[in-house]
Amino acid sequence: MPPKNTRAARPAYRCAECGHEVAKWVGRCPECQAWGSVEELAAPSRTERALVAAGAPATPARPIAQVDVESARARTTGVPELDRVLGGGLVPGAVVLLAGEPGVGKSTLLLEVTHRWALGGSPALYVTGEESAGQVRLRAERTDALHDELYIAAESDLGALLGHVDAVRPGLLVVDSVQTMQSPYADGAPGGVTQVRAVTTALVALAKERGLPVVLVGHVTKDGSVAGPRVLEHLVDVVLHFEGDRHSTLRLVRGVKNRFGPADEVGCFELRDDGIVGVPDPSGLFLTRRDTGVPGTAVTVVVEGKRPLLAEVQALVAGSGLATPRRAVSGLDSARMAMVLAVLERRGRVRLGDADVFTATVGGMRVAEPAADLAVALAVASAARDLPLPPDVVAIGEVGLAGEVRRVGGAGRRLAEAVRLGYTRALVPPDSGPLPPDLRAVVVPNIGAALRFLRDNAGESPDQ
Predict the structure, then answer these.
(1) Is 253 in the same domain as 371?
(2) What pLDDT is attached to residue 1?
(3) Do residue 293 and residue 276 come from a single domain?
(4) Would you say 106 is a known binding-site residue?
């Protein structure tokens, strides 16, 4: 008798989020800690285990210098701020995933993109699974996005979607959203892991086969990540995050992954009643220009992607009758804010232990990078001592626990933006590198030097 196989085939289980395999089913993946993502894998059939025979290739391999690149040139979307993030436009056959919170303006932006695409002479197909065609038409009327080459279809079936593509033969396909589409060849409800993976795989194959750029709208989870299996982000070519505060008109499109361009670029938009428009010079949204200084304000330069933006930090220090004074933060990192306050009190001799401290940014901007530490410290000290900074001064620098001011990357590029907007003086750390010639730089090696500048120059006007 042949020896008995002691290693019987056991079912394997794989996490749909990270791909980690386990021997038995568990409710939570031990690798990525995702709940309910572990699924059973079917045992491989005999044909799957067999050796794959060599077949004739569809096209022969060629030297890389002989490959035609004209067919892969990016075409502009007609929205310059979006083109900036995409790296010049949409590449034929590219699949773009645009994710964002509900109501942030994803559908409005993509309706504008399809309208601009249709204006360029190529048909665009907008497939919505979340709204009716009439609802999309009403939004198009409100944003003046009506065009004969812009086609709308309200479908949630993948087969019907592919039928619309065959009928219209568009130059751009937008699917809003991928979580609402359902494939008849996959199990599960729409939005589930299996369905999302099957629909995305089919649309990626469609894009590559026909050279059709496809934009997919994706939902996000409570923590801001893309909903659905993690493999979704690996299947597509470009992943963009659409961010914005509901209480502000500012919207940011941030590149997370891009196979055709930079992955750290940011596009700025303003959401209005009549649609969404790009903001090529957004620094004005984050500044309050004044002829004289006001206590509790300081201006810094932050970098979003590769774009330098001026941001205004405001602070208010008021006496507190509470045993534990309040520390309120809006638009800034609360942990860094607590560190800056501790350094100010210990190294700068600014009394804050019995006062409420409120800090915020202007225009709903979120500032998290350490380059804004010096401006935050000066804003708080200015409010505590009632000494206004001159209105023509910007401050950049990271503040250390010992009170030193450390240099930051791209100081020259940051300060060139400040000069362009009319600022003539800057507080900078030592060894900041080449700076614009039209700017008078004041080197502050520590927080004490910055506070002395505040004391000696408080209330100066720009022409002094």
Answers:
(1) no
(2) 46
(3) no
(4) yes
Sheet of 12-15: strand order equals 21-22, 12-15, 38-41
Known binder of ligand: residue 107? yes
103-135 residue pLDDT tens? 889 999 999 999 999 999 999 999 999 899 999
Q: Report residue 311 as tokens.
A: 């941001």
Judgement on whether residues 266 and 316 belong to the same structural domain of the protein: no
- Structure letter (DSSP) for residue 44: P
Its sign, for the CA torsion 383, 386, 392, 393, is negative
Q: Give the residue from 221, 245, 280 where a domain finishes.
A: 280
Query: Do residues 111 and 147 both lie within one domain?
Result: yes
Asked if residues 92 and 72 have their Cβ atoms less than 8 Å apart, the reply is yes
**Ranges of H-type helices in 283-427:** 334-347, 373-385, 411-420
Range(s) of the domain holding residue 23: 12-42
Whether residues 226 and 346 share a domain: the answer is no
> Residue 348, annotated ligand binder?
no
Residue 143 lies in a domain: yes
CATH assignment of the domain containing 362: 3.30.230.10
- State how far the Cα of 36 lies from the Cα of 427, in Å rounded to an integer: 52
The verdict on residue 54 lying in a domain is no
Q: Is 101 annotated as a binding residue?
A: yes
pTM of the shown model: 0.78
Residues 166, 244 within the same domain? yes
The two structure tokens encoding residue 105: 């303006």
CATH number, domain containing residue 134: 3.40.50.300
Domain endpoint, select from 280, 295, 330: 280
Q: Is 105 annotated as a binding residue?
A: yes
- Cα distance between residue 410 and residue 234, in whole Å: 31
Query: 377 or 362: which carries more pLDDT confidence?
Result: 377
358 and 236 housed in the same domain: no
For residue 370, say whether it is annotated as part of any ligand binding site. Answer: no
- For 28, which DSSP code? B
* Residue 117 · residue 280 · CB < 8 Å: no
Residue 224 and residue 269: Cα distance in Å, rounded?
19
Confidence (pLDDT) at 163: 96
Per DSSP, the residues of 266-322 read EEEEEEETTEEEE-S-GGGGG----SS--TTEEEEEEEETTEEEEEEEEEEEEE--S
On average, the pLDDT of the chain sits at: 88
